[in-house]
From TrEMBL:
Domain of life from the UniProt record: Bacteria
Domain Glycosyl transferase family: 4-182
GO molecular function: transferase activity
InterPro entries in UniProt: Glyco_trans_25
Keywords: Transferase
Name used for this protein in its record: GR25 family glycosyltransferase involved in LPS biosynthesis
Length: 413
């Protein structure tokens, strides 16, 4: 087993060892530092195409894994590769060996852990069908520290789509196939079941997802390895890429939402509170005090739409609260375009003038639209929320906000 760890990240190595005291005989290998990579040389040697838009961290991640695949192919023996944010179950070595022994001799790749903020697609078996699963990353994170003390019994299914390279085993033949497919690293996009749009190649796992259906690739369900998948502290995914700072968003008093309901003439109080990133915490208990529900879900817009649909949230529900100051534009567009809530309350910090998106790999990003611009595009007016300082109120076209003629009387357009 090989552990990928940057030479400058001794703290992450110490944390890995503290979280995985049961693992013995792991060989630490130096990961490639993408900040030091010579992109011109990589292009000249056919490792990377000139139009590849990888962050420094993504380049380092790709080169780290490519190096291990080369070693597996040349050494003629399977390798198990582990990233340094992994937490492995107590019986990982025993259970992974059992699974590998039960696979056909021509197996090429086995995914022992995957990202929980994206769907996973695998085949249930002969005569059955593919299965696409979604996960609750927040719930997994709450208990990840105890995973190393748990024994897990798993099954291997044919892998079709997924994200993450936290922990996997690869055969020499599988390693050769991945090197042949992935070089040169290049732009591409891949359709994932469960997502409404194609995913652009922003990292090596995006490329792997394209080739897994053509390989003897498998995934362990349930997983034998977990990762918090925290982009704020990742040295592989995020290195060289500015990340949103941790933010504390003050939550309005429940009475503020009750007042919003009253002012727009709402009677049934169908409302939803959503946290759509990992940088803020949405206290759903406060939502429940006024009789409505909160969700802690992934950033992906299609997963957001599915979560609302599965919970019976129909178009035109009364009020939406977004518990983050930096809501991803695709998620917001899904909410405004597909579900058409009557009113939306968002932190005012998100309403900024157009500003360039963070530059990546020395390129200038496109302008980021302000909340007012996004809202106007979907037929919503925008104004300060008079019942909650620091928040904006978006109103769907046809709904007005006027001072009531007398207490408790709302005026609708």
């Amino acid at each position: 087993m090989r552990l990928l760890n940057l030479d400058r990240s001794s703290d992450r190595l110490a944390l890995f060892r503290a979280r995985n005291p049961h693992l013995a005989g792991i060989e630490r290998v130096s990961a490639v530092d993408g900040r030091l990579a010579d992109r011109r040389r990589l292009i000249e040697h056919g490792i990377m195409s000139p139009d590849l838009n990888y962050s420094d961290g993504a380049v380092g991640c790709a080169m780290s894994h490519l190096t291990q695949w080369r070693d597996a192919a040349q050494g003629g023996e399977p390798l198990t590769i582990i990233e340094d944010d992994a937490v492995l179950c107590a019986n990982f070595e025993e259970e992974s060996a059992r699974v590998l022994a039960g696979l056909p001799d021509d197996w090429e790749y086995v995914m022992w852990g995957f990202n929980f903020d994206a769907p996973l697609t695998f085949h249930l078996g002969e005569g059955l069908s593919p299965c696409t699963s979604a996960f609750d990353q927040a719930a997994m994170r709450q208990d990840i520290r105890n995973f190393a003390s748990r024994r897990v019994s798993t099954m291997a299914f044919r892998l079709l789509r997924g994200f993450g390279t936290v922990c996997y085993s690869i055969s020499p033949r599988g390693a050769m196939r991945l090197v042949e497919f992935c070089l040169p690293l290049r732009p591409m996009d891949t359709m994932h079941p469960g997502l409404a749009h194609r995913i652009a190649n922003a990292g090596i796992d995006n490329m792997l997802a394209r080739v897994w259906p053509e390989m003897a690739a498998y995934v362990a369900v349930p997983p034998l390895a977990l990762t918090e998948n925290d982009h704020r502290v990742s040295t592989i995914q995020a290195a060289g890429t500015p990340q949103p700072p941790a933010q504390k968003v003050a939550f309005p008093e429940p009475d503020a939402f009750a007042a919003v309901f009253e002012r727009i003439g709402v009677t049934n109080a169908v409302a939803v509170g959503i946290r759509s990133d990992h940088y803020t915490v949405l206290p759903t208990a406060a939502l429940r005090r006024v009789g409505w529900g909160g969700f802690d879900i992934a950033e992906d817009a299609s997963l957001l739409a599915r979560a609302l649909t599965e919970r019976g949230i129909e178009q035109g529900f009364d009020l939406l609260f977004l518990g983050t100051a930096d809501t991803p534009v695709p998620s917001l567009c899904t909410l405004l375009g597909s579900f058409r809530p009557r009113a939306v309350v968002v932190p005012a910090d998100r309403d900024e003038a157009q500003r360039p998106a963070p530059a990546e790999a020395g390129r200038r990003g496109p302008p980021r639209l302000s909340m007012k611009q996004i809202a106007a595009g979907f037929g919503y007016s925008t104004q300060p929320c008079p019942e909650a300082d620091g928040y904006l109120l978006l109103l769907r076209q046809g709904i007005s906000w006027e001072e009531p003629a007398e207490p408790g009387v709302a005026v609708l357009a």
